[in-house]
Write a structure and sequence with these properties.
75% helix, two-stranded antiparallel sheet, mainly alpha, signal, elongated, coiled coil, Lipoprotein
């Protein structure tokens, strides 16, 4: 099984916000929303990626499943809870947030499907069935990537529209 790079599926922007040049409420909320997203989603995504890579190094599927169950899935839940708890105030951030929620719905579904495939591998299902489960999960994750790209584009449009200065250094 190929080691996935889950950070890609989160649709990470490699853009860090510095400050809103304009002092509008929308600009301030865009900055706050994005910086919070980077801190709470990207950081956890990096942790998740490391744990999943480590779990896939396990010789036996039961050990990989156990590691993912105990360490990875709680992070998936934290990310999901964080995303669902956001309550944007301005219409522009509400729209961006809805795009992110749509993205994360597909992402979470894909991650859980892959987790289920690892579980079933530990229960002895065939490689053919495992491959089929993983392919279905990858389809969901591809949809999440596309939704993430659209959300990233929307964010960049908003940053330009509201004169928000960006730092384009990668956060990795």
């Amino acid at each position: 099984m190929k080691v996935p790079k889950f950070l890609v599926f989160i649709g990470l922007s490699m853009v860090m916000l510095l400050a809103a040049c304009g002092a509008s409420d929308q600009a301030k909320e865009i900055v706050e929303y994005h910086n919070s997203y980077l801190k709470n989603v990207n950081d956890k995504g990096e942790q998740l990626d490391k744990i999943i890579k480590q779990s896939l190094q396990e010789a036996n599927p039961q050990a990989a499943y156990q590691m993912q169950k105990e360490k990875a899935m709680p992070i998936v839940q934290e990310i999901t809870d964080y995303m669902k708890a956001q309550e944007p105030k301005t219409d522009v951030v509400k729209e961006l947030h809805q795009m992110r929620l749509d993205q994360f719905e597909k992402w979470e579904k894909g991650i859980k499907m892959k987790f289920d495939a690892v579980k079933q591998m530990g229960e002895g299902i065939s490689q053919q069935k495992t491959k089929k489960l993983v392919n279905k999960a990858n389809e969901e994750l591809k949809k999440a990537i596309e939704l993430g790209k659209k959300a990233d584009e929307k964010f960049l449009e908003l940053a330009e529209e509201y004169n928000i200065e960006l730092d384009t250094e990668q956060s990795n």
